[in-house]
Amino acid sequence: MSTLFSTTSLRHSHSDALTVSQQVGRYIPPNGFSTSSIALPFLSSPESAELWSTYENLLYSCLRTGDDKAAHSCLQQLSGRFGTRDQRVMGLRGLYQEAMAEDNSALLQMLRQYDEILHEDPAITPVRKRRIALLRSLAREADAINALIELLEASPTDIESWAELCELYVSQGLYQQAEFCLEEILLSKPNAWNIQARLGEILYISASTTQDQSGTLAESVRRFCRSIELCDGYLRGYYGLKLATDKLLVVLRDIARTDSRTSSSSRNQELAIPSVETLQKLSESATSVLTEVARKANLNRFRSLDIAFVEDLLKVSTMKRL
């Protein structure tokens, strides 16, 4: 399901949003809903949670693709079913109003509205999340981080909030704090392969800023391996594994060349750094999978940004070996 942490840069359409928004005709008549027709679905067919999830996803997708009229119709349907005082509907209405804002002054007015609502009832989580997203859109990252910390103190198992706080920390270069956020998510969702891969990415990015570069890269390799173990064929996992293993091999060669005595387990005393032979096998395995993915994509004339990145990585890896 879409997230209430979506920023106000909703006009940047992509293929997924376009695909979903094209389904709007199945749910919304060309001229919108009349007052008398709103209640008809309840008389003609059983109500389902999936229907209302679809309306919510359509709302997000229509805003992203600029179909404001259809987005408003979706919002009307949700408001008619759950009421204008429903907490999630309040958050969605705020999202719609932010998307309609013409300038920063209008967004600041929305921020004041959120403050007024939360002054009356601080427990309205969807509005709190919209306020945080708006702070981030206004480039007030410090305020957004503080607001997220307060939200997580009240709701420490909110995975969505931990993920948002992680990305805010990454944007500020606070990688250790970002790692902590993802570890909190994994306590609740230990088999989340995408979170394992994201943690591997942050470890890879932060490795050059740590004293224990080899230990940090080794942990990055483990996280990417875990993501692949949980989801065989996960392209992002194999891409990260290729990057991390190749980088760690270079670091280990530099250490051997300078005969430096660095701790191989300072990051985790129980886990030693993988051997060069193991890292080479992992790199070769990742290369084999990525090559096959690129081959099939070219065979089927399927092009995407992901495939372009894969091909670029393989080219760079081949040039380094020559």
Task: Indicate the topology.
Blueprint: H1 15-21, H2 40-44, H3 49-64, H4 68-82, H5 87-100, H6 104-120, H7 125-137, H8 141-154, H9 159-171, H10 175-188, H11 193-206, H12 213-230, H13 235-258, H14 276-299, H15 305-321
Helix pairs in contact: 1-3, 3-4, 4-5, 5-7, 6-7, 7-8, 8-9, 9-10, 10-11, 11-12, 11-13, 12-13, 13-14, 14-15
Features:
globular; 70% helix; 15 helices; mainly alpha; 322 residues; single chain
Model description:
The chain has 322 residues and is mainly α. The chain contains 15 helices and no strands. The protein has helices at residues 15-21, 40-44, 49-64, 68-82, 87-100, 104-120, 125-137, 141-154, 159-171, 175-188, 193-206, 213-230, 235-258, 276-299, 305-321. The longest helix has 24 residues, at 235-258. The model is unreliable at 34-44 (pLDDT under 50).
